[in-house]
């Protein structure tokens, strides 16, 4: 493979498809989206197929992820937010599985594509905006008018609130994308040092030990980041949904 | 756009060829790799390459939509059901346990009550038996005592009877003996009246 650290993010067509002059090819990214869905859904489906009253280890993993997201959403958005549980659960499981699958060597990381994370973030913000207006009408706009702000400062605060709201999809998507991208590039660079240094002979092999240790350590760190970013995405989704369920309460 | 697809395929084949070359010469490969990127994505950083955005969005929509459906229709009801069943079962078991405990308490209470009743009854029976035995013993003793005193009285009567009879006999014998003794000693006869008077006088001593 190439030593170029960005080579791993290249999208390659597997089955070229074109509809209406637009390229909808089945790419390696599409393949790993399918793999992510297959792995996550397959795991959840197979581990819970026993419906054991006393759960097996794997079944309790599925149950724990369910209860983890359920309590997160209940704390974040209250009981009114529980109707979004399938959405938050799907997002969390999808992102977590995609991140973890990306940790396999030679696997494609779909969450390292800005368009994918941006689409997911837009899906969240779109749901918030749509549900907010559907449920509260123009009362949803109270979201931008915090309580107890002096009249003089109000225009300024409202402007800040609107800007912060508009930046949410960007921050949400860039956070996930940048973390995955940077982590994979770092990993690739350090691993590249190992191969290029050890090609220099005995001294090089000795010198390659340090980047090798770094590679191992960063791999561990990346697994943490994989979980953490999925968690952060889900927590922020819960917070934003809280705005849609209870606008003007913050 | 057909051209693009064909072009992309061509570039894929060249990539394969390059990878093959790269095995021989790693240094050269990096350059050709960069060049290849330049061809495929007009030199932009791969994640920002907009040529595949439409395809990414479509496949993300398809796969995530499918995933969302699977989650909301199959997985979430299933796990929710499992958790609810467990929750219900635990609550049911707790209810059952408290019901059984109540039953056990009631059983203990009724047992203790019956025990107390039985004890009281036992005491009563024992007391009754003791009283009956006591009174019977008293009655028996009284009967025996009465019998005995009757017998004693009868015996005393007979003794007195016998005594008087014996005493009477003693008088007669003494008279006879005195008559004989007098006859032998004196050789004369003594009147019966004298003898009786003498016996009486000695008996009086």
From TrEMBL, chain B:
Keywords: ATP synthesis, Cell membrane, CF(0), Coiled coil, Hydrogen ion transport, Ion transport, Membrane, Transmembrane, Transmembrane helix, Transport
Signal peptide start and end residues: none
MF-aspect GO terms: proton-transporting ATP synthase activity, rotational mechanism; proton-transporting ATPase activity, rotational mechanism
Gene Ontology CC: plasma membrane; proton-transporting ATP synthase complex
Domain of life assignment: Bacteria
Entry keyword annotation includes Protein transport: no
Membrane topology summary: Single-pass membrane protein
Spans traversing the lipid bilayer: 57-76
Database matches in CDD domains: ATP-synt_Fo_b
Keyword Zinc: no
InterPro entries per record: ATP_synth_b/b'su_bac/chlpt, ATP_synthase_B_chain
Coiled-coil portions: 94-121
Protein localization: Cell inner membrane; Cell membrane
Known partners and oligomeric status: F-type ATPases have 2 components, F(1) - the catalytic core - and F(0) - the membrane proton channel. F(1) has five subunits: alpha(3), beta(3), gamma(1), delta(1), epsilon(1). F(0) has three main subunits: a(1), b(2) and c(10-14). The alpha and beta chains form an alternating ring which encloses part of the gamma chain. F(1) is attached to F(0) by a central stalk formed by the gamma and epsilon chains, while a peripheral stalk is formed by the delta and b chains.
Job description of the protein: Component of the F(0) channel, it forms part of the peripheral stalk, linking F(1) to F(0). The b'-subunit is a diverged and duplicated form of b found in plants and photosynthetic bacteria. F(1)F(0) ATP synthase produces ATP from ADP in the presence of a proton or sodium gradient. F-type ATPases consist of two structural domains, F(1) containing the extramembraneous catalytic core and F(0) containing the membrane proton channel, linked together by a central stalk and a peripheral stalk. During catalysis, ATP synthesis in the catalytic domain of F(1) is coupled via a rotary mechanism of the central stalk subunits to proton translocation.
Family: Belongs to the ATPase B chain family.
NCBIfam families noted in UniProt: PRK09174.1
PANTHER family given in the database record: ATP SYNTHASE SUBUNIT B (PTHR33445:SF1), ATP SYNTHASE SUBUNIT B', CHLOROPLASTIC (PTHR33445)
Protein name according to UniProt: ATP synthase subunit b
Organism of derivation: Ensifer adhaerens (Sinorhizobium morelense)
Gene: atpF
